[in-house]
Each structure stands twice: as structure tokens, then as C-alpha cells.
From TrEMBL:
Higher taxonomy: Bacteria, Pseudomonadati, Bacteroidota, Bacteroidia, Bacteroidales
Functional summary from the UniProt entry: Required for the transposition of the insertion element.
Protein name: Mutator family transposase
Family: Belongs to the transposase mutator family.
Keywords: DNA recombination, DNA-binding, Transposable element, Transposition
GO molecular function: DNA binding; transposase activity
Presence of keyword DNA-binding: yes
Domain of life: Bacteria
Organism: Prevotella intermedia ZT
An individual GO BP term: DNA transposition
Length: 142
């Protein structure tokens, strides 16, 4: 990407992916993203691949309250758990079977759930209560 274009692209992306106090819904965010891609695809043709409909799933976090959006779209928790898995596997030189590896990784995940990932996010509770009917309708549709 050209150094001249970086500030403009960054500014427009910050509008497409607002971080705080966002009232935008997922379909609106996806439409904004498509507009962004259409504006820049002539200059940067590699952006065309992001216009695929399947990429709309990346915007589902926008349907949640702003307080929990960052928890949803970040991958820090996943990366941390993967690091724990790698560290645990590297400490063992060999394992007796594939099943024992699965049990070991499950034990790591359970331990992390108790210590790190077990904390409650209270904003989800208020969101769930407020949107209880919508959640029930979605469950019935599945």
C-alpha cells in the first residue's frame, strides 16, 4: 500500500470498524465494508476477495453491546490458550497415544477456564435479558 494512501485508508477503516460506543449493526457494518472495498479495489485489486458474502460473519460482533464487542472480536484469549497448549506439549517428549494428548489438552483448557477464562462478563447478562425473545427465536430457527 502506498504511504500516501495509508492515512486515508486507516481513517476509513476506523469508520467501518468503530471500537467504542458503536450503534451499528452487523449488516450495516458489512455494507460499510463493501463500500470501502469498492472505493479502493481499483487501486488495490487484492481487496476484491473480501467482497464475498461469507465475510459478513466477521461483523456479527456488532450485534452485541459496545461493552462486550472487544471481548468477542479479539483473538487474544485464543492465542493465549494456543500458547499454553504448545508449552504443555513441548514439556513432554512423548505421549503414549493420541487419546492421551486430547486428555492433556482438555486438562489445560479446564485449568485455564478455572483461572483465566472463568470470569463473568456481566454485560452479557443484561444483554441476554434484554434480548431474551430474540435469542429464543434464533434457537427455534436452528
Amino acid at each position: 500500500m502506498s504511504h500516501k494512501d495509508k492515512p486515508a485508508v486507516a481513517q476509513q477503516l476506523s469508520e467501518v470498524f468503530p471500537l467504542e460506543d458503536n450503534e451499528m449493526k452487523s449488516f450495516e457494518g458489512y455494507e460499510e465494508f463493501i463500500t470501502f472495498v469498492e472505493k479502493w479495489e481499483r487501486k488495490y485489486p487484492a481487496l476484491r476477495k473480501y467482497k464475498a458474502e461469507r465475510n459478513s460473519a466477521y461483523f456479527t460482533y456488532m450485534d452485541f453491546p459496545a461493552q462486550v464487542q472487544r471481548c468477542i472480536y479479539t483473538t487474544n484469549w485464543i492465542e493465549r490458550l494456543n500458547r499454553k497448549y504448545k508449552r504443555t506439549i513441548n514439556m513432554r517428549t512423548s505421549m503414549p497415544s493420541e487419546k492421551s494428548v486430547i486428555f492433556l489438552l482438555a486438562a489445560v483448557a479446564m485449568e485455564e477456564t478455572k483461572t483465566t477464562y472463568g470470569r463473568r462478563i456481566y454485560q452479557f447478562k443484561s444483554w441476554k435479558e434484554k434480548n431474551k425473545k430474540a435469542v429464543e427465536v434464533q434457537r427455534k430457527e436452528r
